[in-house]
Amino acid sequence: MCYLLIMQKLKDSFGRTFPYIRLSITDVCNFKCGYCLPDGYQVDKSDNRKFLHLDEIKRLAKVFSKLGVSKIRLTGGEPTVRKDFFEIIKVLKKEARIEKVVVTTNGYNLDKKAKMLVDSGISGINISIDSLDSNIFRDITGHNRLPEILQGIKNLQELNFTNIKINAVLLKNINASEKDFNNWAEFIKKNEVDFRFIELMRTGDNLNYFNKYHISAKIFKNYLNKNNWIYQTFGKDAGPSLNYINPKYKGKFGIIAPYSKDFCKTCNRLRITSRGDLRLCLFGNTGINLRHLLQKDDQTKELQDLIMRQMKFKKESHYLELGETGLTKNLSTTGG
Ligand code: SAM
Ligand code: SF4
């Protein structure tokens, strides 16, 4: 008799598949972004669980790899503050055989880390820069570190590293004027870097900030249309961004608008928090802890079955437009 080995794939009830995991490796962050951690990272004394350790991450990634995951994004908090950050990348690539390991960072010390990042074999880096004006940057993040981040980007480029994306949260009366947009246009004219504005999202902690600074990404869309940027309907990369190109510019512009209709239709990612909770959606109320099944190498099958069973609970949409923020106090716990 011939038995066919069918590889189990992560798939939900709406036909969406999940080749991509966002893995938060720490809640700790050294910045104080107004929309995320305005008072900086605070230790949660009621929660004495430690962040996932290297062996747990290895077991988790191996199982996801078996379930068809080919891309893992390391995020946080600030992922690069972990002392074993480069060791984690190595384990994901070499032991779990994850094809693409990518990183989201606030760019802290990027000038010094650029070479190590390139040497680690990561496939891409997303750097958060909310403004090219160093005073505005400092006001938003609480740190005067824009020059080292921009130098870090130069260093990456000199090492021929190309998959660089910059993300900024769009904030009314702070970084959303025509002048701000023109500054970014100048930047991507010369730099092969994709720049995307993310619409500010409401979380459990930031209601006042949200009410004060949220602005629809339409303002940026109108700017792009007025300035002859062309919406890229084909070749869209595996992400939530609407991309715009212009032949006179080396880089691309993008918009990530979580409140827009259809945002969830193309969802292809699941999230793991730094303490090992599987989150089916950034804003979902559903979260199950996987940690008890990450303790020994022989728990693989049980872990795989638990993850597969969870897939039927993934909802069609985040329902953010109805004011739902789910379990998300701020994005430092789930990685944005
Ligand atoms: N510390 C890293 C960083 O800032 O890039 C990684 C974690 S951070 C939570 C990931 C992304 O989420 C960043 O681009 C950040 O700007 C974005 N973010 C955080 N809070 C947000 C919010 N309330 N609305 C929209 N984006 C947010
Ligand atoms: Fe830290 Fe990133 Fe949150 Fe800013 S957005 S406070 S850099 S985790």
In short:
Helices cover 29% and strands 16% of the residues. The protein has helices spanning 54-66, 85-95, 110-120, 134-141, 146-158, 178-190, 207-213, 218-226, 300-310, and strands at residues 20-24, 71-75, 100-105, 124-128, 164-170, 194-199, 230-231, 242-245, 253-256, 269-272, 277-279, 287-289. The radius of gyration is 20 Å and the shape is globular.
Can you give a write-up of this model?
This protein is of the alpha/beta class. The protein has one domain (2-333): Aldolase class I (TIM Barrel, Alpha-Beta Barrel). The protein has helices at 54-66, 85-95, 110-120, 134-141, 146-158, 178-190, 207-213, 218-226, 300-310, and strands at 20-24, 71-75, 100-105, 124-128, 164-170, 194-199, 230-231, 242-245, 253-256, 269-272, 277-279, 287-289. Strands 7-8-9-6-5-4-3-2-1-10-11-12 form a twelve-stranded mixed β-sheet. A hairpin with a 4-residue loop joins strand 10 and strand 11. It is globular. The protein starts with 19 loop residues before the first strand and ends in a 26-residue tail after the last helix. The relative contact order is 0.16. Iron/sulfur cluster binds next to loops.
